[in-house]
Specification:
It is a single chain. By secondary structure, this protein is of the alpha+beta class. It folds into two domains: 96 residues, no CATH class; 116 residues, no CATH class. 32% of the residues lie in helices and 20% in strands. It is built from nine helices and seven strands; from the N terminus they run H-E-H-E-E-H-H-E-H-E-E-E-H-H-H-H. The strands form two sheets. The protein has a four-stranded antiparallel beta sheet. Strands 5-6-7 form a three-stranded antiparallel beta sheet, with helices on both faces. The longest helix is centred in the last third of the chain and has 15 residues. The two termini are 32 Å apart. The relative contact order is 0.14.
């Protein structure tokens, strides 16, 4: 747990617990819902209500939460959203329990919000620190004929050009940001302490990478990274 917190705290520049949750949507699942038992099958015992339940789908930049409440509370919020109203969730009185993931098994797949991204239209930077950038974009697989762009979340280091395997993190829930954020944070924890000015000097960066890895890096290579221009384009959208 300490290693997990250290990774996220380093990436964010403050404790992850200080991050605010966004509400992505609500689901109301009455007790008479088809396949009701499948919804509750893998839930903790305290969340297996026989009277139905409501779910508030929430997430911060690098965490996800499914907050359980009653169907009546969920219905009230759903109706307010349809009217274009903004209504706060009273955690103390309305929330009966929760999960730190969005459930996706069985019928849950149809209930989760279909747009879990953090940035507008899934195009932009989520967080960046000391050259490490976590971002969202669309990825088209070069290995699939007539493939459509898919929303992904990934990371890239503009110092040593290490990257997350973005094509493996196609969005299904907000939990994908947790995985990528942890990878990026661990990359920082392992030794990146560059200042912003140092990052802009190819010779200094190349010397650092050569010394750190034992493999020579030509400073000119820094101008040939295919991902860095994409990151700069996303930064311009902010």
């Amino acid at each position: 747990m300490k290693q997990l917190d250290e990774a996220f705290d380093r990436l964010l520049g403050h404790p992850r617990t200080e991050e605010q949750l966004r509400i992505y949507g609500w689901s109301s699942i009455p007790a008479g819902t088809d396949n009701y038992a499948s919804y509750t099958e893998f839930l903790p015992e305290e969340l297996r209500s026989t009277d139905g339940f409501g779910v508030c789908w929430a997430a911060s930049r690098f965490s996800a939460a499914a907050l359980f409440t009653s169907p009546a509370v969920a219905d009230d919020h759903i109706a307010a959203m349809r009217r274009g109203e903004s209504r706060n969730l009273n955690v103390d009185t309305d929330v009966e329990g929760g999960l730190d993931v969005w459930p996706t098994w069985g019928p849950w797949e149809r209930a989760i919000p279909d747009k879990p991204s953090w940035t507008k239209d899934n195009e932009g930077i989520i967080a960046e620190r000391d050259g490490v950038v976590v971002y969202e974009t669309h990825y088209t697989s070069p290995f699939v004929e007539d493939a459509s762009p898919r929303p992904i979340v990934t990371w890239h280091c503009q110092i040593c050009h290490a990257s997350g395997k973005g094509e493996e993190y196609v969005y299904q829930t907000a939990g994908e940001r947790h995985t990528i954020g942890y990878e990026a944070g661990r990359h920082l924890v392992k030794g990146h302490k560059f200042t912003a000015s140092a990052v802009t000097i190819p010779e200094a960066v190349a010397e650092f990478v050569t010394r750190k890895t034992g493999r020579y890096m030509d400073p000119a290579v820094l101008m040939q990274c295919k991902v860095c221009p994409n990151v700069e384009a996303l930064r311009a959208l902010q």
